Amino acid sequence: MKQYEMVIGLEVHVELATKTKIFCSCTTQFGGSPNTHTCPVCTGMPGSLPVLNKQVVEYAMAVGIATNCDITRYSKFDRKNYFYPDNPQNYQISQLYLPICRNGYVEIETQSGTKKIGIHEIHMEEDAGKLIHDEWEDCTLVDYNRSGVPLIEIVSEPDLRSAQEVITYLEKLRLLIQYLGASDCKLNEGSMRADVNLSIRPVGAQEYGTRTEMKNLNSFKAISRAIEAEKLRQIELIEEGKTVIQETRRWDDNKEYSYAMRSKEDAQDYRYFPDPDLAPVVVTQEWVDSILNRQPEFRDAKIKRYIEDFKIPEYDAQIITSSKHLADIFEETVELSGQPKEASNWIMVETMHILKVREMEPEKVSFSPSNLAKLIKLIESGKINRTVAKEVFEVIFDKDMDPEKYVEENGLIMESDEGALKEIIQKIVDANPKSVEDFHGGKEKALGFLVGQAMKETKGKANPALINKILKEILMH
């Protein structure tokens, strides 16, 4: 059987984190009762006129700079004409001829080393509304809340060759955009979604095969499964002597099957023409420089700095920086506590454990860095031990409670009164002659048992180092 390779290009749609829509002042907030975040402009009423939101242009330029694009100095909006119930104007305002960003790239790490994925263009456009299919009433309803929410579409070159490369590229893009604050990129809420253009060809062939497009995939698992299934479908067609048809397909992730929606349109099918209601966007060098100066420190630079300045392992640095939210918590905690290794450990061990057990996203972490820093200082000063600290951390994680207040109110200050501890330990030694005998017989586990009994007796509040010291003194007496 012939060996085939995939050729994949992506169109990634990202909803921008502006407070208002691209051409009107309606809120972009997710949710809300149907058709309440609307006005004459975003519902396409006759005579209403669009006014461009400057922040949309700035976010688009920031993403373009982060992905090594050229910024178009004279950019225009066009009308993409098509009829669909969720498209109230019967056209979408987009950019075809002069998009805001062009000719960029993103570098990803693959099994065979660093690979450059070309970005053909990034253009600004408005989102459409949402159709809700009501099976009970056997009808379709339209919610225009999302209509006019600002989007950028990041169009890659056909440089991707596997599902793994696609996921790596998308993860890199998502982190860049999240670090910029340009979007939360929540795939489950549709603020980041991808269309996959895929074709296959024999390994070594230069010409592209016929491509299909799979629309609006909004989870990495679905994207990966859709790619593998479409690859097999196209190979089977070719092996059977049939032809791959250029078409748009919809992936059903529950059935793990795709079906044809429509034959693939070309640009002329949309009768694009310049939007007469919107002036061109003229970008000056000063404007580009101001965006450039506001670019944040991205993940790769953070990882390097964490290893060099904070002396934490590369693995820890990679995990912490995989979420901008966690990286922000970590950095502020370090600043307040002066303990980078401790801050890293609390995020890497306890935080990650709770996130895994509760199946939570890192973005849902709501405790303040100041409370984590206070917890670290309580341990450092010897006021609580690590057993108590773990209990306190869970309270901080759930309620963001001040650990100093919680420790005091619940009587958790570490017992370091040597006289009081001596009495408790002497009683434990007297009550466990077998363990004492085992210890003198060279069994180290016996000491661990006695320490455990002392910790139990003091409800975990005693200083373990002090218990060890007193125990050895009594046993060696």
Give a quick rundown of the structure.
GO terms for molecular function: asparaginyl-tRNA synthase (glutamine-hydrolyzing) activity; ATP binding; glutaminyl-tRNA synthase (glutamine-hydrolyzing) activity; transferase activity. The protein is of the alpha+beta class and 477 residues long.
What is the chains' assembly state? single chain
Unreliable parts: none
Structural class: alpha+beta
The helix count comes to 15
For the record, give the distance between the C-alpha atoms at the N and C termini, rounded to a whole number: 81 Å
Count of DSSP strands: 16
For the biggest sheet, the summary is: 9 strands, mixed
How much of the sequence is in beta strands?
Answer: 15-25%
How many distinct folded domains? 3
- Basic shape: elongated
- What value does the Rg take, in angstroms? 30 Å
Residue-averaged pLDDT: 88
Strand order of the largest sheet: 2-6-7-10-1-11-12-13-14
Task: Classify the helix fraction into a percent range.
Answer: 40-55%
Write structural notes for this entry.
With 477 residues, the protein is α+β, with helices and mostly antiparallel strands. The protein folds into 3 domains: 4-288, no CATH class; 297-409, no CATH class; 418-476, Arc Repressor Mutant, subunit A (Orthogonal Bundle), CATH 1.10.10.410. It is built from 15 helices and 16 strands. The strands form 4 sheets. The chain has a 9-stranded mixed sheet. A hairpin with a 4-residue loop joins strand 8 (130-134) and strand 9 (139-143). Helix 12 crosses helix 14 (445-457). The longest helix has 20 residues, at 220-239. The mean pLDDT is 88. This is Aspartyl/glutamyl-tRNA(Asn/Gln) amidotransferase subunit B.
